[in-house]
Amino acid sequence: MTQKKITAGQIVLFLLLLGIYLKNLAPTIVSGDSPELVTAAYNMGIAHLSGYPLFLLVGKLFTLFPLGEIAFRLNLFNANITAATASALFFLLSGFLTQDKKLWLIGLSCGLSWGIISPVSNLGLITEVYPLFWLCLTFSLLSLYHQNYYLTAFMIGLGLNAHYSFLLIVPGLLLWVKKPFWKTKKLILVLSLVIIGLGAILYIPLRAQKSPTPSWAEPTTFKRLQAKITLQEFGERSEIKRGKGSKEYLKQLLYLLKISLKVFHVLLILCFFGLAKLFADDKFRAWGLVTVCLTYLLFLAHFSSYPTLEEASELGPKFLVPLFVFLLIPLSLGIFSIMIITEKRLKNIVLILLCLLGPAIALTQKPNSKRWNFLAYDYGLNLLQSLPSSDYYLISSGDTSSFPLAYIKYVGN
What is the distance between the alpha carbons of residues 263 and 322, in angstroms, rounded to a whole number? Predict the structure, then answer.
């Protein structure tokens, strides 16, 4: 593919997905972490778990745009980030699909499929920390593919700020390194760039001194900061928990595999074809891809603790999206492999049918429009309006009820 076609494909994919997201974008907060994250970004507070400093700093900039209410601005931020990630994935796939001028269609199909599968689009329509994490991961893969290891080091640092589960990917990413950088000077520079990327984490202790709203765990001391970053503040209630014993480990692994199969369906068959082609063309990158997928999946199974498949199906997909990013590479090559073994007169038909398969499967999944989702906002507003105007104490149970109240009270919509 020529550079002009790659750029055109990126722009088309970005605008197409952004149009889809804008049509279904949540107009305000939704239930879950969305109200808390909006409140933390707007007030420059400190969010739950690891604090997500990168999201809060970049998200704060988006709250300054005079467009709709504050929550809508951050929802729009996530929509742009998710569409940009798909566009960057198209650029990554173009590096593997250089043999035919028509292959931009394959990259477009794979990027579109990724952008509309429910685990991605569900989180791209609301305020959440994951889209920024996916963008950092995609740029890490891009820089690794082009052997720009200094940029990779910086993106790894940023990725660790975006979401703590990025740490589970790093061991597999290191196996993509073709040129050794273990010489002292290069290693020092690489580690320095990781630390610079991690610099956003200083926001947490510095901002904690001002007692912002919210300020989870009040990380004003080194001990409290350590507890927050290492997720100790949540203890056994942490979103990712350590599995217990081999049976529990295998159960979690099986849950994750079932979810992957549910999302990708028959596309996994195309992934196997593509993996075979990648091994034939570039064994180093093929082994690197297999290793990063397996290590991430095994690490995820080790730290997951979902009691039932239903709960795993609800919470697990958002952690599996990085795996779906990796699978786009063999998926695109799988479509190409089948196309080249098809008779010449049928090639165009086969190409079009296979390129339509991914988006078609993605569209069959659970509808995810948030366009008319005012439930969390109305719930919080009605609850606050039912209280007396004088001083009061409100005891609530869980995030679903308390986060909308915090948004309405402290963001001031």
Answer: 13
